[in-house]
Amino acid sequence: MQRPQHWRWVAALCALVIGSASCPPALAQINLPALGDTESEDFGIGTERKLGEQVMREIRRDPDYLDDPVLLEYIESLWQPLLAQARANGNIGSDLDQRFAWEPFLVRDRAINAFALPGGYVGVYLGLIALTASRDELASVLAHELSHVTQRHIARSIDNGRRQSLIGTAAMILGVLAAARSNSVDAANALIVGGQAAAIQGQLNFSRDMEREADRIGFSLLTGAGFAPGGMAAMFEKLDQSSRLNDNGAFPYLRSHPLSSERIGEARARLGSSPAMPPGSAFEHGLAQARARVLMDSRVDALRRWQALDADRPGATPTERLAAAYSSALASTMLRDWTRADVALQSALGLAATQARDARTVRTVALLAAQSLFERGDPLRAAAALKPFAESGSRPVMLLTG
Q1: Given 58, 215, 284, 310, which residue is catalytic?
Q2: pTM, entire model
Q3: Smaller CB count within 10 Å for the chain: N or C?
Q4: HEC-encoded secondary structure of the chain
Q5: What pLDDT band is residue 276 in, cutting at 50, 70 and 90?
Q6: Is residue 215 annotated as part of the catalytic site, yes or no?
Q7: How confident is the model at residue 287 (pLDDT cuts 50, 70, 90)?
């Protein structure tokens, strides 16, 4: 699988300064900010939103940007209650609320990562979704990243290290121009890293104080929005343990959000004063996990492995059996193996109806059934499969019913 070339995403950061990532060198030299220029040092809400929009234009062109309506809808079901709680807590002023995008998006990559961008955009890697065992763990990461945005940690970081940031931006511009001239990714990366811009490349690093603040405010959002308070401590512990057992560079989240025993201890200590919350549907989150795992690697050999989960699995829990049937059905659909897809779909629909008994879980499996029918050129049957859910007006339903 092709990895995201993060230097191309960083090129968007330059666009605010040079107008376009592909401008000729002369224009870039004219528009480079002077170090210490008062006007260029202003990083207000409008500037942050504009910078975020420039970044997102580049990200949306990247082949690893994933617009999957089913997974995005699930992410939004966690994001919107957190956002509403941030408004209720007074973390989002009216100006910030109106001008920021408040938009999560997906990155097709197996790395364990999530990051906040200027202007209210939060990126979530499929690898992170695949790692989480519950909606509460995933919501804790979203709450933490949302708190980086509401507290304007990006702007504060740039203000605190403005001179270094401008030097880094200039180095990134040179890297983009070098790549445009030579078509060499290595040349661009060398200039970017050499120019002290690694702190902004792909994701933004924050100080320890900002991390603690995001933990504290994020925990308040998590519990206020109705998620189980243990989600944050469980997520920290899982990240820490997984990185120790498998330290192969697959945990960039821990490099930009370093965990300490103090942070993990504080997350555990907060549990004592928090009311217990019922956990969300394990079945629904299990389906989101399954979808993320299949979509993050579309190579045929990988899809064949997921397809093979349609075999009997003695000793598997109902949640695991449903996730396995869903994974097999999705992989078979992507392989255009319709016979095998239908068998796995029937199994998943039966398990959702008899084991989960949860309308959202049944609907998620029905969306996959409709997707499979739609992709084999049968939009009428796809619409019929979603008829019970047509009144919801959700984006995946509208896309699959034409």
Answers
A1: 215
A2: 0.80
A3: C
A4: CCCCCHHHHHHHHHHHHHCCCCCCHHHHHHHCCCCCCHHHHCCCHHHHHHHHHHHHHHHHHCCCEECCHHHHHHHHHHHHHHHHHHHHCCCCCHHHHHHCCCEEEEECCCCCCEEEECCCEEEEEHHHHHHCCCHHHHHHHHHHHHHHHHCCHHHHHHHHCHHHHHHHHHHHHHHHHHHHHHCCHHHHHHHHHHCCCCCCCCCCCCCHHHHHHHHHHHHHHHHHCCCCCHHHHHHHHHHHHHHHHCCCCCCHHHHHCCCCHHHHHHHHHHHHHCCCCCCCCHHHHHHHHHHHHHHCCCCHHHHHHHHHHHCCCCCCCHHHHHHHHHHHHHHHHHCCCHHHHHHHHHHHHHHHHHHHCCHHHHHHHHHHHHHHHHHCCCHHHHHHHCHHHHHHCCHHHHHHCC
A5: low
A6: yes
A7: very high
Residue corresponding to tokens 């983009």: 176
At residue 66, the pLDDT reads 96
Q: Say whether pLDDT at 196 is over 70.
A: no
109 is catalytic: no
CA 265 to chain centre: 26
Give the tokens for residue 284.
């629904």
* CA dihedral sign, ordered 49, 54, 60, 63: negative
In our burial notation (b when 16+ CB lie closer than 10 A, e otherwise), range 290-329 reads bbbbbbbbeeeebbeebbebbeeeeeeeebebbbbbbbbb
pLDDT tens digits for range 10-20: 444 433 333 33
- pLDDT tens digits along 296-312: 999 999 999 999 999 88
Using CB atoms within 10 Å of the CB of residue 245, give its burial: 0 to 12 exposed, 13 to 18 middle, 19+ buried.
exposed
- Which of these is catalytic: 58, 73, 145, 310? 145
- At 148, list the tokens: 């980086």
What token pair was written down for 279? 């956990």
Residues 122-180 pLDDT 10s: 999 999 999 999 999 999 999 999 999 999 987 777 665 554 444 454 344 344 434 43
Alpha-carbon distance of 74 to 160, in angstroms, equals: 36
**Rounded-to-integer distance, Cα 206 and Cα 30, Å:** 31
**Structure confidence by residue, pLDDT tens digits, 319-358:** 999 999 999 999 999 999 999 999 999 999 999 999 988 8
